[in-house]
Amino acid sequence: MQAIQTELQRQREYLALREAEIKERYRPEALTAEESNAAMREIFTQWDLDYAVMKNPVIKENRDFL
Questions:
Q1: What is the mean pLDDT of residues 53-66?
Q2: Where do the DSSP E strands lie in the chain?
Q3: Would you state the pLDDT for residue 65?
Q4: In this structure, what DSSP letter does residue 36 have?
Q5: CB atoms closer than 10 angstroms to residue 16
Q6: Are 49 and 12 in contact (CB under 8 A)?
Q7: Comparing 64 with 13, which gets the higher pLDDT?
């Protein structure tokens, strides 16, 4: 049961990010960081997810290239 919940959470996260990517691609104007974060929070809230802004995120798989 936990594996199913974990997978569903992962899928919601993916879909929220995909929705944000599509909206950003077709946005005619530039956004400030604050506006972008507010838009991301709104999308994540619609998917019942928490959105946290990361300062200088490091992706583990790419650490060797930094």
A1: 53
A2: none
A3: 47
A4: H
A5: 19
A6: yes
A7: 13
CA-based max dimension of the chain? 44
Residue type, 15: L
Q: Is the pLDDT of residue 66 over 50?
A: no
Distance (Å, whole) CA 3 – CA 37: 30
Q: How many CB atoms lie within 10 A of CB 20?
A: 18
- 9-42, pLDDT tens digit by residue? 899 899 998 998 888 888 778 888 888 889 888 8
Q: Which residue has the tokens 């959105």?
A: 51
Compute CA distances 19 → 30, 38, 52, whole Å. Answer: 17, 14, 17
* All structural domains of the chain with their residue ranges: 2-56
Is the Cβ–Cβ distance between 12 and 48 less than 8 Å?
Answer: yes
Tokens of 46: 């619609």
